[in-house]
Design goal:
This protein is of the alpha/beta class. Helix content is 39%, strand content 24%. It has one domain: Protocatechuate 4,5-dioxygenase, Chain B (3-Layer(aba) Sandwich), CATH 3.40.830. The strands form two sheets. Strands 1, 2, 3, 4, 5, 6 and 7 form a seven-stranded mixed sheet that branches. Strands 8-10-9 form a three-stranded antiparallel sheet.
Amino acid sequence: MYSGPIAANAYHRLASDGLVDVFVILGPNHHGLGSGVAVMNAGVWRTPLGDVEIDAETAKEVMRSSGIIDVDESAHSYEHAVEVQLPFLQYVYGSSFKFVPISFLMQDLETCRDVGETLSEVLKGKNAVVIASTDMTHYEPHRRATEKDKKAIEAVVELDEELFYSLIDTYKISTCGYGPVTALITSAKRAGVKKGELLSYKTSGDITGDTSAVVGYASLIFEK
């Protein structure tokens, strides 16, 4: 009820851009289980809208191209950041797409850049979209959360992963998936993207009216 209306802005833009064969969905590892950077390379994920198949071929290419990504199902067992994106995609595309899930327990700058560079190489020539799933600031007053998040969002729009990463540290911005976002920026730049676009930003306080302790949500897109 909080993040859905924000995320829907990106999926609306995506829906108007035609079919996509494969999605790579990046998310943080909240539970600390499994490998530092973990992919699944076989099977299906089931939601109330049906089953979505993992793109085994692309997942294996990612594995071959990166020395730091492991196949580890346990890293995804209790994780929600990737799976919450699937119903949006199923609403738009039905079951006509495949996906590759990647979970980040390690979110240091070098690791995230490595993953981003790997994705740019593996996805070259493919009809693919990369999605990074994250919340923004957690449980701070609305005004403070908004001020912090806007700094980070400006760096994302400018495709400056180093600035984004430093702002997260300097202002203690509690963005859970800063690693996936960093990897996405890296991949987008190598794919020729010049700038991002902010579609929507709100906090949970905009929904509940309680602005004392909110979570921030933003929807951005990168287009060639």
